[in-house]
Write a structure and sequence with these properties.
Organism (chain A): Microtetraspora fusca
Distance between the termini of chain A: 37 Å
Radius of gyration of chain A: 23 Å
Number of strands of chain B: 10
Subcellular location (chain A): Cell membrane; Membrane
InterPro entries (chain A): ABC2_TM, ABC2_TM_bact-type, ABC_2_transport, Nod_factor_ABC_transporter
Shape of chain A: globular
Strand content of chain A: under 5%
Low-confidence stretches of chain A: 1-14
Order of helices and strands of chain A: HHHHHHHHHHHH
Structural class of chain A: mainly alpha
Order of helices and strands of chain B: EEEHEEHEHHHEHEHEEHHHH
Oligomer: heterodimer
Mean pLDDT of chain B: 81
Structural class of chain B: alpha/beta
Membrane topology (chain A): Multi-pass membrane protein
Number of strands of chain A: 0
Distance between the termini of chain B: 12 Å
Number of helices of chain A: 12
Mean pLDDT of chain A: 89
Strand content of chain B: 15-25%
Family (chain A): Belongs to the ABC-2 integral membrane protein family.
Number of helices of chain B: 11
Chain lengths: 286, 319
Amino acid sequence: MSAAPAGRPPVSAEPAAALGLAPLLTTPRARPGWWVLPARVGAMCLVELQKLRHDRTELYTRAVQPALWLLIFGETFTRIRAIPTGGVPYLDYLAPGIIAQSAMFIAIFYGIMIIWERDSGVLTKLLVTPTPRAALVAGKAFASGVKSLMQAAVVLVLATLLGVALTWNPLRLLGVAAAVLLASAFFSCLSMSIAGIVLTRDRLMGVGQAITMPLFFGSNALYPVDVMPDWLRAVSAVNPLSYQVDALRGLLLGTPSHLLLDFLVLLAAAAAGITAASCLLGRLAR
Amino acid sequence: MTPDAVTPEPVTPAPVTTGTVTPEPVTTGTVTPAPVTGTTATGGVAPDAVSCRGLRYSFGRTKAVDGVDLTVVSGEVFGLLGPNGAGKTTAIRCLTTLLPVPAGTVQVFGHDAAKERMAVRRMIGYVPQQLSADASLTGRENVALFARLFDVRRRERAERVALALEAVGLADAADRMAGTYSGGMIRRLELAQALVTAPRLLMLDEPTIGLDPIARTGVWEHITAIRAATGMTVLVTTHYMDEADQYCDRVALMHAGRVQALDTPERLKAALRDRRGDDSAPTLEDVFRDVVGGDLGASEEGGDFRDVRRTRRTASRLG
C-alpha cells in the first residue's frame, strides 16, 4: 500500500559550487530577540528612503498643500488677528500646526498602501518572514514617519522663508523629529487598523476622509483650545494631534507647553496603535 | 521575445526530474485505485520537509481544506495539483504560517507550524501567486530587503544578494527598477528573494500562472537548477498538469479540499493504464479526471470570485 517515496536524496554541495551558490547554502542565524524590532524598523525605513530616492514627485507635490495653508490661510489670518494666540504672530502660531497636519495627512492614508501591498502579494511575503507582526507594523509605522519627517523639514524651511522665527537649536529639532515620528506612527497605525477592518481601498478612502477633518479641526492646530466649545475641547483632549501640536509649539516657538505630558501621550498612542494594528493585520492575511 | 528564452549561466538542470523516477518495480499496492493519501514517511533520520495530518480550514461555512494528509520528503520537488478552488492555496498558506492551523497538525522539518512560527518561517522561502516584487525598488533592493528581514549579516549581504540575482540570471538587470521587468523576470526576481535567505523549503504558489510558454520553461529551469544546486525541497502548486508531470518528483491531486491521490506522476499514469487495461498513454490530466470521477463538472464551479480575480490580476500584470 505504502508506495515508497521517490524523493531523491538531497543533492550535495557539489553542484552548488558549479553554480557558485555555495555562500547561499547556509541559513542565516537568528539574531537575539531585542535586535528584531530595531532591525525591522531600520529595514522598512530604508525601503521608504530608497523609494523616495527613485521618485521624488511625491515629496514635491505633497509640499503644495502645507505651503498653501501657510501662504493663504496663515497670511490672511495674521491680518485679521481674530485668533488669540498669546502674543505670537498667527503665522508663527500656525506653522507647528501645519507640520503636524501635513504629517497626519500622509500617515492617515498609509493603510491604502497596506491594502495595495496585500493585493499585490507583498504583504503576504512580509508576513512569512521571521518578523513578529508587531515588529512588522512598527517598521511600517516608522517608515511612514520618514515621509512625514521630510514633509516637516519642507514646512520648516517654508515657514522660515515666510519670516517665522523658529528655533534652530539642534536638541529642540531632535525633539520635533521625535514628536513627528511618534504621531506619524500613531496615525499610520490608526490607518492600518482601519484597513484591517474595512479591507478595501475604497472604504478606507471614505473612512480616512471622514476622520481627517474632525481630527484636524478638533485639535489646537489652527486655534487654541480655549476658544473651542466644551464638546470640541473634549475631542481635543483625546486627540493625539493636539498633544503633538502642543509639543511642536513648545519646542519650535518656546511657548508654554506640557512637553512631558505631550510625549507621554504620544508614546502611549503609538504603542496602542501598534498593538491594535498588529492584532488586525491578520485579517489582511486571509 | 521575453528574455526568459535565454537560459543564463551554464544552467544544466541535471538529470533531476522525471525519467529516473521508476527504476524500482512498482509495488502491487499502486494497482488499486484507492487514493493513496498520506504516503508513509521514510522513517529515516532526517525529518520530512512537510508533514501534514488531518489539516482542515474553513472560510465561514466553506470547507476550503477538508482533512489533508501529506508528507513531503526532504529534497524532492512536490507538486500540489488541482483546479481553482481545490484548496491548494489555503493548504500552502497554512504551511507558511499565514493562516492558523485550526485542526490537524502541520510540521515543517519537525517544527510545528502553529507553535513555532518563527522557526518555520526561517526555513521557508515563499513565492505567492501574485507578483510580489516591489515595482518601485530595483531588483537588487528587492532582494536586499529580504536578506535584511532574514538577518543576513551585513558583511555577507552584498555578496549573497549578488549571487542570488546571478543564479536567476538577473545580474545585468539588478539595478533596474523591478517595474520595468517582464513577467518572467519578476518571477525569477522572486526566486532570488527566496534564495537569498537559503531556505530549506521553497514554496511556490502557481509560479508560472499567466506566463507565456517560453517564460514558463525559463522559470522551471531556474527552479530545477536551484534545486539541484542547493538540495532544497520544493513544494509547488499548479493547475498545469503538464508542468507537474515534467518537473515534479511526486504529486498530490487535490480536489474539493482533499488529496485524492498521491504518488509519482509515472506511477499514477501507470496505475490508470493498468486499470484501463489498454495500451493508451494516459496523461496526468487523464489521471486527474479519473480520480475526480464524474465530479469534474462540479470543479468548474470551484474558485470563488476573489480567487479567480487574483489569478486574472496576476495574469494581466504579467502581460
